[in-house]
Amino acid sequence: MRKQIAVLTNPTSGKGKGSRITDQVTPRLRDAGYDVTELVGRDGDEALDLARKAVADDLETLVVVGGDGMVHLAVQALAGSDTRLGLVPAGTGNDVARNLDLPRKDPAAATDVIIGGRERQIDLARIGHRYYVTVLAAGFDAIVNERANEMSWPKGQMRYNLATLAELRTFTPIPYVLEVDGVQHRFDAMMVAVSNGPSFGGGMQITKGALMDDGLLDVIAIDPMSKLDLIRTFPKLRTGSHIGHPKVHHFSGRTVTVAAPGIVAYADGERIAALPLTVEVVPGALRVLVP
């Protein structure tokens, strides 16, 4: 009897990149003995409905072809279920794939992980009824995201570069109230990130060394600094070399509440809601196939 598997695709991701990669993935899965159902959502709501139906049908594995946004969507259905996530990256940032050591530029190799990889259970972070996999951004980075999303030009990374420069002109430190496992901290900071994994934003190692299966959230807060220092520090996030800087503070816990005026938080690159927000870790909530 052939094994059942479904492939969920966003046909508009990466200017059609998702569909092109799916055309490579499905024959490879069929050749490996799978009975493949292709699920194509015309928009986010339909894609989520398709993912929920796959879980309701007790499908063993749901393969997502897409980026962090598509994974974020699918996780809303997969969290706490027995259906496993298989991931073939087709996005821009691909931080979920990066954090799980999945091939990010080789669809065939990523498909082979689904065919012959092992199952791993990882934690998820939860805000109310919404889950995320990587990082909640709640500071300067979130403000840049807000501005970039309002811009129609240019496209790609350059839009975020211009949004960063625009926000730097007027940005001032933000007053935060942070509560970690019931202990409250009040301070001004440039940004606060609540992480379930080490990277976000296409490889920025904001919480380098964070584990996705330790039952804890990692929180990074960056003290106020001059605009010049902020420009110098931001590139260090790519390597995680900001860790240990005297103006970078680390907390960890199971439940984190973060409050600040005028900040809309982003998680997995997706707009979540305005602060205050409470995040809790859900240990072992997601089954995922990894090398």
UniProtKB/TrEMBL annotation:
Residues 1-131 form the DAGKc domain. InterPro entries: ATP-NAD_kinase_N (IPR017438), Diacylglycerol/lipid_kinase (IPR005218), Diacylglycerol_kinase_cat_dom (IPR001206), Lipid_Phosphate_FormReg (IPR050187), NAD/diacylglycerol_kinase_sf (IPR016064), YegS/DAGK_C (IPR045540). GO terms for cellular component: plasma membrane. Keywords: ATP-binding, Kinase, Lipid biosynthesis, Lipid metabolism, Magnesium, Metal-binding, Nucleotide-binding, Phospholipid biosynthesis, Phospholipid metabolism, Transferase. Pfam families: DAGK_cat, YegS_C. Its cofactor is Mg(2+). GO terms for molecular function: ATP binding; ATP-dependent diacylglycerol kinase activity; metal ion binding. Gene3D superfamilies: 2.60.200.40, Probable inorganic polyphosphate/atp-NAD kinase, domain 1. GO terms for biological process: phospholipid biosynthetic process. Residues 1-21 are annotated as: Disordered. Belongs to the diacylglycerol/lipid kinase family. This is Diacylglycerol kinase. The lineage of its organism: Bacteria, Bacillati, Actinomycetota, Actinomycetes, Propionibacteriales.
